[in-house]
């Protein structure tokens, strides 16, 4: 259900951006302070560039934030592979080519049956 709301929100944001771009086709003059230069471009193009920069910076921040999680996941996969290899090496092989079942797959023995005792 959470993914559904994300799709609805993204469709609304995109509809807002498209309508803004269609309604604001006029040129704007941008003044860059350090260089004292002026740049004239469409307002919708400027907004598109700002949103693209925001998206790229946000994606980079998320990627950097999950770096530790990716490293931990790689270490866990390596550890799992080592443990599986170790488990395969420790199983004794049957002379007929069939591996013995592990203790986890064997049914547990039944408890002994003890007749009830009458106490009078």
Helical segment tally? 3
> Largest sheet, order of strands side by side?
1-2
In whole angstroms, the N-to-C terminal distance is 66 Å
Oligomer: single chain
Q: Please tally the β strands and state the result.
A: 2
Q: How confident is the prediction overall: mean pLDDT?
A: 80
Percent strand equals 5-15%
What does the overall shape look like?
Answer: elongated
Q: Helix/strand/pairing class, anyone?
A: mainly alpha
How large is the radius of gyration? 33 Å
- Helical residue percent band: 55-70%
Q: Please trace the helix and strand order, writing H or E for each element.
A: HEEHH
The residue ranges in which pLDDT falls below 50 over 5 or more consecutive positions are: none
Short description:
With 120 residues, the chain is mainly alpha-helical. Helix content is 57%, strand content 10%. The chain has 3 helices and 2 strands.
Provide the fold topology.
Layout: H1 2-23, E1 27-32, E2 37-42, H2 43-65, H3 67-90
Antiparallel strand pairs: 1-2
Helix pairs in contact: 1-2
Q: How does this structure look, described?
A:
A two-stranded antiparallel ribbon has the order 1-2. Helices cover 57% and strands 10% of the residues. A hairpin with a 4-residue loop joins strand 1 (27-32) and strand 2. The chain has helices at residues 2-23, 43-65, 67-90; strands at 27-32, 37-42. Helix 1 (2-23) runs antiparallel to helix 2. The protein is mainly alpha-helical and 120 residues long. The two termini are 66 Å apart. It is elongated and about 105 Å long.
């Amino acid at each position: 259900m959470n993914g559904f709301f994300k799709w609805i929100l993204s469709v609304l944001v995109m509809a807002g951006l498209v309508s803004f771009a269609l309604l604001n086709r006029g040129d704007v003059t941008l003044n860059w302070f350090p260089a004292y230069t002026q740049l004239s471009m469409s307002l919708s193009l400027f907004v598109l560039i700002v949103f693209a920069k925001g998206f790229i910076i946000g994606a980079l921040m998320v990627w950097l934030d999950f770096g530790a999680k990716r490293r931990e996941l790689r270490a866990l996969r390596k550890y799992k592979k080592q443990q599986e290899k170790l488990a395969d090496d420790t199983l004794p092989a049957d002379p007929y080519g069939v591996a013995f079942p592990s203790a986890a797959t064997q049914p547990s023995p039944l408890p002994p049956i003890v007749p009830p005792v009458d106490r009078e």
